[in-house]
Amino acid sequence: MHRPKTLLLTRPERQSAAFARALDAALPGRFAVTVSPMTRISPTGAPLDLADASGLLFTSANGVEQFAARGIATALPAYCVGAMTAAAARAAGLRAESAGGDVAALAALAAAAHRPGDGPLVHIRGRHAAGDLIGLLAARGVPARPAEIYAQEPEPLGPEAAARFAGGRIDVVALFSPRSSAALAAAIVAGGWPVGDLVSVAISPAADAAFAGLSPGRRVVAEAPGRAGLIAALAGV
């Protein structure tokens, strides 16, 4: 029997744990997961006015969690970038719909539901966000505004993960965003750790590009964005 491959996850603790559970359910025994969050999510305390809003936009489960933490009861529809974010929104009691793709797909979904005379959509987001969702909606004639209710603070790679890298005992890294990919790449360069046998599996071409400069032994990009697409890509390594 082959030993499980050691997989590094660098998302925040709860998101990493949820992904690890889904991965083990889909591919039981294939991976031994090491979690080392490289991002800390903290609320900004920014005001959130939904009085004129006609809907909510979510591009991350972090946004859903931070919105839910405010205890705002709303019947507004929640348009979500993918299944993972939509599941988090439904668990928070929101009426959620998944775009099943990327920011462009989310813009298309939200624009199709928006009617003339409807109020603006509100993008619940962090200070750092991939893609120009507001711009994509503006190009479709849909008013939208951002609400930056949380910050993504960088965290160093943990000592367990660092020791595993130094000893060549990380087999696979999962890359969930360009920003987290770049942070992990910088940590590997700073540590001087070998990557010749490392496999990187990215959720998107942008996440892959942010890590590609390291020239890992093998690079894989998910054919479809989101949790299911990434798990399908991991099935092939």
Mean pLDDT: 94
Percent in strands? 15-25%
The total domain count is 2
Largest sheet report = 6 strands, mixed
Would you give the CATH topology of the largest domain?
Answer: Rossmann fold
Structural key phrases:
237 residues, alpha/beta, Rossmann fold, 2 domains, six-stranded mixed β-sheet, five-stranded parallel β-sheet, 11 strands, 36% helix, elongated
Describe this structure in words.
The chain is built from nine helices and eleven strands. With 237 residues, the protein is of the alpha/beta class. The protein folds into two domains: 5-38 and 155-234, Rossmann fold (3-Layer(aba) Sandwich), CATH 3.40.50.10090; 41-152, Rossmann fold (3-Layer(aba) Sandwich). It has a six-stranded mixed sheet with strand order 3-8-7-4-5-6, with helices on both faces. Strands 2-1-9-10-11 form a five-stranded parallel sheet. The two termini are 16 Å apart.
Care to give the gist of this entry?
The protein contains nine helices and eleven strands. With 237 residues, the protein is an alpha/beta fold.
Question: Layout of SSEs?
Answer:
Blueprint: E1 5-9, H1 13-26, E2 31-35, E3 39-43, E4 55-58, H2 61-69, E5 77-80, H3 83-91, E6 95-98, H4 103-113, E7 121-126, H5 133-139, E8 144-154, H6 159-166, E9 172-175, H7 178-191, E10 199-202, H8 205-209, E11 218-221, H9 227-234
InterPro entries: 4pyrrol_syn_uPrphyn_synt_sf, 4pyrrol_synth_uPrphyn_synth
Pfam family, one: HEM4
Domain Tetrapyrrole biosynthesis uroporphyrinogen III synthase: 32-231
